[in-house]
Amino acid sequence: MNTYGSPSNVGPDAGLDTGPDAGPSAAQLRTGRPTGLYTDQYELTMLEGALKSGAAERRSMFEVFARSLPDGRRYGIVGGTGRFLEALANYRFGDDELAWLREHDIVDGPTLDWLADYRFDGTIHGYAEGEAFFPGSPILTVEASFASGVVLETLALSILNHDSAVASAASRMTSAAAGRPCLEMGSRRTHEEAAVAAARAAVIGGFFGTSNMEAGRRYGLRTLGTSAHAFTLLHDTEEEAFAAQVRSHGQSTTLLVDTYDVARGVERAVRVAGVGLGGVRLDSGDLLTQARDVRAQLDSLGATSTKITVTSDLDEYAIAGLAAAPVDSYGVGTSLVTGSGFPTVGLVYKLVARQNDDGDWVSVAKASTNKASVGGRKFPIRRIGDDGHATDEVIGVGSYPEVTGRTRDLHVRFVDDGRIDPAYVGPEAVSAATSRRAESVGELPDTARKLQRGEPAIDTAFVAAR
Amino acid sequence: MNTYGSPSNVGPDAGLDTGPDAGPSAAQLRTGRPTGLYTDQYELTMLEGALKSGAAERRSMFEVFARSLPDGRRYGIVGGTGRFLEALANYRFGDDELAWLREHDIVDGPTLDWLADYRFDGTIHGYAEGEAFFPGSPILTVEASFASGVVLETLALSILNHDSAVASAASRMTSAAAGRPCLEMGSRRTHEEAAVAAARAAVIGGFFGTSNMEAGRRYGLRTLGTSAHAFTLLHDTEEEAFAAQVRSHGQSTTLLVDTYDVARGVERAVRVAGVGLGGVRLDSGDLLTQARDVRAQLDSLGATSTKITVTSDLDEYAIAGLAAAPVDSYGVGTSLVTGSGFPTVGLVYKLVARQNDDGDWVSVAKASTNKASVGGRKFPIRRIGDDGHATDEVIGVGSYPEVTGRTRDLHVRFVDDGRIDPAYVGPEAVSAATSRRAESVGELPDTARKLQRGEPAIDTAFVAAR
């Protein structure tokens, strides 16, 4: 059921190297579905042009970064790196893809031959998934021939823009929830495959689990879900519906109590399930008032341990607004999967350096007033103050920055001459990213967790070699 | 490479009926990937509860509708119906899916057995893809056993919410473009599979073509694309880059002229390619001023037939703002694939009627102040005035509405006792939807095409049987 690169295809031995050392991993990665056509046509026409001009083999450095954070956000969270690496392992052009490109005359014969043999053999560094990022942070750098790197633009940006948007929104929500579990239930509000990726990104952003079954299966996430109004309406009475659910799911289930009248729903729920009822869910109305009323009613009925879950059009602001309400968990849908107003985080994929005919690196950048980028290879570090909080981000341009005091390297190596580091793919990478996000956000100054619009939580400086 | 339901798997003979009459079509549809886990857990727990309570086989009517249009929009465009039907043909639970559900104790044994045998055998009516819709329009109605219908909620909503959001935004953009071609190039700003669906929905909304290769292959869409700044920066000079592109793609290619200096870029482009150069692309700066300057420069150089394409952060308002500029086509990215501010259109999937133990239909609806729905089966028609423009939408509740004058039925039958009508799936359905959208929007009063916020273009009335 995976679109591409099932995690099981990119296990501990996965690599892109198809040479003699790769052995089983090369065979393993071929079992995924080809992802070569997740590509914009201009990448293929640039490839053809470069193959013709002779510049295709020039060693090049491409960089993924955001020019700014979405309006007033204090930080972003890198999401999607693991998915990108899994897709990269399957970035190739099978017979179907090549036949279509040929029939539609998209590129010429030599370019088709080049695509047929494509296996990424370059090196990729970047911010580990779950890491906080800021404007200009080089969250992914691809070093390869121009030809090998240029074709990855759309694949990298599609995945990183989407998943980072959701992970960034999720992180704000879980901060606002201040320890109460957040539950991802937005699948119905986004594309069916994007929903799977969104669930994964939400968990990286600190969500407890997801309602999405495929996300649970593919990435080993906790799943959850009880019932909708339809289940109550199906039965002749609310009691019958509650009784049916308790019969099949036990007393620990969560009953949806707002189909008819909340107070009567709560009373029936406790009568049917007993005071040990697991939880009740509120999905409409003024949640602040209702949560207080329902908590009082549950307590008066003796159901003091019954939890209250709320789920109606929540975002980080609504969650913060319920901080004083007796709510035990938040179910978040639309706002989460659409990045809470910013469904994409503005990441771009730019050529920042390439070699000339003598093999020397040349920094390159578009000369434009409103789309500035910094040429050259980047070496990013985060500086940590005496109190353990990050103070700023320093990005060496062309060489490692010379700074004093405590620092933390931000770039890790994902791919080395075509071989993917297994630490960054598969379900384990999701767990690692979840922990990393908590640490990275925890390391930021307190201003980072403000919901109000403002400047990035820390400054970023680009430092060129002296 | 398809996620599910390749159009080729849902050809003219495709059906869901697995009985003796179905023959080849049943085998055909099984070649798609299972889509059963594109489902929220609560649908499966409701299924289990209903199987236990005995209500699972109650004949039920589920309806997809929007409570309102996104803020101030005048109409919406139905998108995704064809993709939903293709996914429905593959909605089943294979060994992998069942094993995962069993291992994680999501549902009990009898429910697993029921899922293993699942083939949708109900009937589905709805608005044909490309049709305009309004608040309350029943764009999809699913009539089946409760069990068969309840599990489709997430699949239906994921697809229809996403694709309708993009088709609706696209329609506003192509109206604003007033005949100039709009080109979809947003793949880098959305999930990689959502990008494929977005390209399809954009074309339904009137876009000329897409940069997305997989969308071209899967749905037979026109594709296009030339080069990015990276191609210019790769070469030692802009001239070399232009010459390489013209050598490989011919004089009719479109050259990106704003990497360094637009005026010099245009001069070099014409010098290298000749006055027969196909086009130039502007991707930054003040497009209105630049387009005028570039047009004047091209004309003065004799390149009077060279086209100008603009592509920088356009939405329907920016497109409208360029109406007086000498622009020949618009490339639209982020705003299109994210629904121009509304990445989901708020469609919900509700149980509106179900039979009781006597086999009588009972209308049902949640009693809630802010989430009202109208119970019962719907029969929607659009009334057409003497001038050929739609005047209002009338939705019969429980029976066909009794109205006079010229009318148009809005419901078509997509699935009849499990058999999918081939007219509504595959690449041909996309072409049909493209035409339908143009006709349906053309039929609306002129206010429909206003970009300013306002009321829906026509009113909707619910009429109950007398």
From TrEMBL, chains A, B:
Nicotinate/nicotinamide phosphoribosyltransferase domain ranges (all copies): 183-338
Ligase found in the keyword field: yes
EC nos: 6.3.4.21
Any single Pfam family the record assigns to this protein: NAPRTase
GO aspect biological process, one term: NAD+ biosynthetic process via the salvage pathway
Keywords, comma-separated and alphabetical: Glycosyltransferase, Ligase, Phosphoprotein, Pyridine nucleotide biosynthesis, Transferase
Pathway: Cofactor biosynthesis; NAD(+) biosynthesis; nicotinate D-ribonucleotide from nicotinate: step 1/1
Region (Disordered): 1-34
PTM text: Transiently phosphorylated on a His residue during the reaction cycle. Phosphorylation strongly increases the affinity for substrates and increases the rate of nicotinate D-ribonucleotide production. Dephosphorylation regenerates the low-affinity form of the enzyme, leading to product release.
PANTHER family: NICOTINATE PHOSPHORIBOSYLTRANSFERASE, NICOTINATE PHOSPHORIBOSYLTRANSFERASE PNCB1
Primary role: Catalyzes the first step in the biosynthesis of NAD from nicotinic acid, the ATP-dependent synthesis of beta-nicotinate D-ribonucleotide from nicotinate and 5-phospho-D-ribose 1-phosphate.
The protein's name: Nicotinate phosphoribosyltransferase
Organism, as annotated: Spelaeicoccus albus
